[in-house]
């Protein structure tokens, strides 16, 4: 192929040169378009994965801080120095003692209130003498036997998060100890890393946010109040019409992705908004590299087509050298940026896994406790199967082996919970029929019931009672309640257990026995509290059951019946028929 000149004003380029340049241009456009599409999808997914990882880390840190401070009121309420100060009304050393605690605990502040709601000791001395008799955390703590959590709006904006518990000596209530949790530090930390983060309570109100103007509003209200230049306007565009845009539309503007996760604490949820700026920069870097390559190719083509002037040839050579140098610098910058991003991703994954493995030790004790019941049932079924085989009753023995296989599957499910926690978050919830779950639990307890000859009375509604939860964990709670009821009737001549399932505003399962009752209701749900003989239990059953019910948004309570015996009630949010059909349709999709 020959040409008279590329930039000559006196000669026209031949049609062959035109065709070659046109094909090269079309090839360049096609390559850039394919590269842009593929890399945009890839880098967008990488950005989403990092945002999901940060969201999981943020929610885990927030939940860890809440759980760490939840145990503090329980410990301080038993402090003999504080109890003695309330009894003697001598508070000269109380404030200093609270100050010595606050540094170790990491709480925002501590206050000790007398039974009239007056502040008698506080880490913030400016609060001494102030009255809190009408405060929610004081009133609820004086009424309740356990620890109370309260979210109190502040006049200056934002919220105060407080744990409180009453202090008592013997049967007398002396006052209330309050612990203020410092959650604002997470807002400051999030603001330095993420584009926007918010936390809503069970009502949908924003209680924590990197944008101060969002607090106290719903997410929809917060979005409506922002200006078009703000991050939230980009969030509106990204969340409202994201699926309606073509694949490359979100990289041409200020696209923002919205991610949401559930915090297993009082129905809280967390959402984050992440911009796509880094995606555009990375894609542009690669596209620039390809464009430079095509520019080099085009320069070489012009070099061979421009034979008439040595000046043009030398110029193209210099331009080619400059482009190669720029190409090398871009490659180094891209490689360095990818290395930094990979290091950050590895560090975030390591931090999240370390946090989960730290909690794995606590879960192991709970899982070992839950394996005792299937093991005991397996031992009974094996003994029965051995006896049936000696009597040549093979069909009945095979039925026992089938039940043993079901128990082994249940033990495998319990251990899979432990392994899945080490790898990822909690499993998704699904509709659970409480009647079927109760039937499975009674089937598992059948050997103990038959051995003890316990009379079981069941009262069930005509219609199915359904809740949203994890069936295995709900059955785990039922087995613990039934096992405690059977153990409580051990000294009774005619042991009897009543089981009542009812449906109202909540799904309520009541388990009542005719045993001696409960001596210490306050310490009943505390870990390692047990009235059994050594070797019969470790005191984790009710503590585990209470935690499971709380995670599912319900409540587990206990009381002594009027005619004697203990009464346990498990209340879970009921699942309406409309919600159940919606969940089934989503599952089918």
Automatic annotation (TrEMBL):
- Say which enzyme class the record assigns: transferase
Q: Which InterPro entries match?
A: HATPase_C_sf, HATPase_dom, His_kinase_dom, HisK_dim/P_dom, HisK_dim/P_sf, Sensor-like_sf, Sig_transdc_His_kin-like_C, Sig_transdc_His_kinase_DctB
Q: Which Gene3D superfamilies match?
A: 1.10.287.130, Histidine kinase-like ATPase, C-terminal domain (3.30.565.10), PAS domain (3.30.450.20)
Q: Which residues form a coiled coil?
A: 313-357
Q: What is its main location?
A: membrane
Residue stretches making up the Histidine kinase domain: 366-576
Q: Which domain of life is it from?
A: Bacteria
Name the catalysed reactions.
ATP + protein L-histidine = ADP + protein N-phospho-L-histidine
Q: Name one GO molecular function term.
A: phosphorelay sensor kinase activity
Keyword terms, alphabetized: ATP-binding, Cell inner membrane, Cell membrane, Coiled coil, Kinase, Membrane, Nucleotide-binding, Phosphoprotein, Transferase, Transmembrane, Transmembrane helix, Two-component regulatory system
**The protein's Enzyme Commission number:** 2.7.13.3
Transmembrane stretches, start-end: 20-39, 285-305
Looking up SUPFAM superfamilies in the UniProt record yields: ATPase domain of HSP90 chaperone/DNA topoisomerase II/histidine kinase (SSF55874), Homodimeric domain of signal transducing histidine kinase (SSF47384), Sensory domain-like (SSF103190)
Q: What would be one Gene Ontology cellular-component term for the protein?
A: plasma membrane
Q: What does this protein do?
A: Member of the two-component regulatory system DctB/DctD involved in the transport of C4-dicarboxylates. DctB functions as a membrane-associated protein kinase that phosphorylates DctD in response to environmental signals.
What is this protein's record name?
A: C4-dicarboxylate transport sensor protein DctB
List the source organism: Pseudosulfitobacter pseudonitzschiae
